[in-house]
């Protein structure tokens, strides 16, 4: 309920102070709209003057997906645009020691978002260098390398993502923030959605002011869980948007007194947070996944796609067990993929390498003949590595003419209802049971080193093996409960 609105006329930028549910939120420029997208060679100092930007958050995402930033005054952005913002690489999740030279993040103007709820601030993503050399471990460079490979073949890879998140209480043990949100099947439930209308409205208005093209938001399958969908773009733009999206959701949730989490499965009895990716491949204005694009492949169940899409999907299917450690990069990720059923009756996440038509019980869903949806990734996935591994595997599948038909199921088949050991699963691989198994599968696949680059693969495996070792050394409450009286 809105308690009052007042204006601050002393500010150089008109502001409104909104009282919402006992909390005061401040939004500058009530009718704020972001300026047009910037070209790569845009003069950021000039942009700052024209758009009244006072500070820039110059940011990058490390291997584990952590967002790192420096706050740069607009008066210094011209120099930072030329020379970059300096970071100690050992202080982030990269494979460098404390003796390493500065990691330089050079801001990419095409990635800039002026922050609607704080419009004197701009958020901008940088590409990472040490000296004059690209940091090939950097996830954004890994994605850019895949984009370049596709471009040389005349293709643009486009993605749309479906990130899920929980709104939790801000203090103490993780708990759903809405104590009235208790239904066993809360998905799309209207009252629970509307009790979080204020924060969802702020998030959506922020994204749309930045030209996201949000077209829907809903309450998801778990209590306290939500999803926001926006228009698909080229995969680098979508990845940059996902980075900004997660920052916006967390920031505005805090302003409303909540804590947002994208953790894969924070509650054992509720569905986890997925990050499904809808994928299509384009040549100019033509979607080459469309069944009408040249020779079409038609399954016996009537699921249609182009021959290009068929082989691309063949690569995505064949490499799924290898890249699972990247799309599902935490110990907790495998509680979502392999955990017990939920209060609602389904986890909505795959545990086998299978695909079908418009059927959400499989790893890949083909809702229309123009795209497929990969449903394996979770909320911890690195925003750049998700499209990078899909594109790398897909191009590899096209080159090798891979056939995904071996694990196709009729759209009427509920994969969750098929028991392990059933004859139908004779040729259907299972996804890894835990992070260690996933890392071993990734390390054993030498193609992945060639596809993603030795620098990234070596660094990723080193960091994640250390993470697993830290987990394995942890003494859990479950061990004490079950073993103390042995």
Total DSSP E strands: 22
Strand percentage: 15-25%
Please give the count of helices.
14
Structural class: alpha+beta
| Rg from alpha-carbon coordinates | 23 Å
Residue share in helix: 25-40%
State the low-pLDDT regions, or none: 1-24
Rounded average pLDDT: 93
Shape: globular
Distance between the termini: 56 Å
**Which sheet architecture does the biggest sheet show?**
10 strands, mixed
SSE layout and pairings?
Layout: E1 2-8, E2 15-20, E3 23-28, H1 44-51, E4 55-61, E5 67-73, H2 77-83, E6 85-87, E7 103-107, E8 113-114, E9 121-130, E10 133-134, H3 139-152, E11 156-169, H4 190-194, H5 197-209, E12 214-219, E13 225-230, E14 233-234, H6 235-255, E15 258-261, E16 275-283, E17 286-287, E18 296-298, E19 304-306, H7 307-318, H8 320-327, H9 333-338, E20 355-356, E21 364-368, E22 371-374, H10 385-400, H11 435-444, H12 446-452, H13 454-472, H14 477-483
Parallel strand pairs: 4-9, 20-21
Antiparallel strand pairs: 1-2, 2-3, 4-5, 6-7, 7-9, 8-9, 9-10, 11-13, 11-14, 11-15, 11-16, 12-13, 16-17, 16-22, 18-19, 21-22
Helix pairs in contact: 3-10, 5-6, 7-10, 8-11, 11-13, 12-13
Summed up:
The chain is an alpha+beta fold and 486 residues long. The protein has 14 helices and 22 strands.
Any overview of this molecule?
With 486 residues, the protein is an alpha+beta fold. The chain is 31% helix and 24% strand. Strands 11, 12, 13, 14, 15, 16, 17, 20, 21 and 22 form a ten-stranded mixed beta sheet that branches. Strands 4, 5, 6, 7, 8, 9 and 10 form a seven-stranded mixed beta sheet that branches. The protein has a three-stranded antiparallel beta sheet with strand order 1-2-3, with no helix packed on it. A hairpin with a 2-residue loop joins strand 21 and strand 22. Helix 7 (307-318) crosses helix 10 (385-400), helix 8 (320-327) crosses helix 11 (435-444) and helix 12 packs across helix 13. It is globular. The chain starts with a strand and ends with a helix. Residues 1-24 have low confidence and may be disordered.
């Amino acid at each position: 309920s809105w308690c009052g609105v007042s204006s601050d006329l002393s500010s150089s930028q008109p502001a409104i102070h909104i009282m919402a549910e006992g909390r005061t939120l401040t939004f500058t420029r009530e009718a704020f709209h972001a300026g047009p997208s910037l070209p790569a060679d845009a003069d950021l100092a000039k942009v700052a003057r024209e758009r009244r930007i006072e500070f820039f958050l110059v940011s990058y995402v490390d291997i584990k997906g952590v967002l790192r930033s420096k706050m740069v005054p607009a008066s210094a952005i011209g120099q930072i645009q030329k020379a970059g913002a300096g970071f100690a690489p050992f202080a982030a999740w990269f494979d460098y020691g404390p003796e390493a030279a500065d990691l330089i993040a050079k801001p990419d103007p095409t990635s800039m978002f002026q922050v609607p709820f704080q419009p004197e601030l701009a958020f901008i993503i940088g590409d990472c260098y040490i000296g004059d050399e690209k940091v090939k471990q950097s996830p954004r460079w890994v994605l850019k390398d895949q984009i370049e490979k596709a471009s040389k073949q005349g293709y643009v890879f486009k993605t749309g993502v479906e990130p899920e998140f929980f709104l939790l209480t801000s203090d103490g043990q993780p708990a759903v923030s809405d104590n009235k949100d208790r239904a066993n099947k809360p998905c799309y439930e209207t009252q629970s959605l509307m009790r979080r209308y204020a924060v969802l409205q702020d998030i959506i208005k922020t994204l749309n002011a930045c030209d996201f093209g949000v077209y829907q938001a809903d309450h998801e399958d778990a209590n306290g869980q939500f999803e926001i969908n926006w228009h698909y773009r080229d995969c680098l733009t979508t990845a940059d948007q996902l980075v900004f999206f997660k920052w916006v959701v967390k920031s505005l949730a805090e302003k409303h007194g909540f804590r947002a989490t994208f953790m894969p499965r924070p509650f054992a009895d509720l569905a986890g947070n997925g990050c499904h990716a809808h994928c299509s491949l384009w040549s100019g204005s033509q979607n080459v996944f469309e069944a009408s694009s040249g020779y079409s492949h038609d399954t016996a169940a009537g699921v249609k796609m182009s021959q290009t899409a068929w082989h691309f999907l063949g690569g995505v299917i064949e490499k799924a067990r290898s890249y699972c450690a990247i799309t599902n990069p935490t110990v907790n990720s495998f509680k979502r993929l392999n955990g017990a059923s939920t209060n609602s009756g389904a986890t909505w996440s795959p545990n086998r390498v299978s695909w079908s038509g418009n059927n959400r019980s499989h790893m890949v869903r083909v809702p229309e003949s123009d795209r497929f949806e990969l449903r394996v990734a979770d909320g911890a996935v690195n925003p750049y590595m998700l499209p990078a591994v899909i594109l790398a595997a897909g191009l590899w599948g096209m080159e090798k003419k891979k056939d995904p038909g071996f694990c196709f199921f009729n759209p009427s088949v509920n994969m969750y209802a098929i028991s392990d050991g059933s004859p139908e699963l004779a040729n259907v691989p299972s996804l890894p049971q835990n992070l260690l198994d996933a890392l071993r599968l990734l390390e054993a696949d030498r193609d992945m080193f060639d596809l993603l680059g030795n620098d990234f693969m070596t660094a990723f495996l080193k960091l994640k093996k250390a993470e697993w070792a830290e987990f394995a050394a942890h003494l859990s409450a479950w061990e004490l409960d079950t073993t103390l009286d042995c």
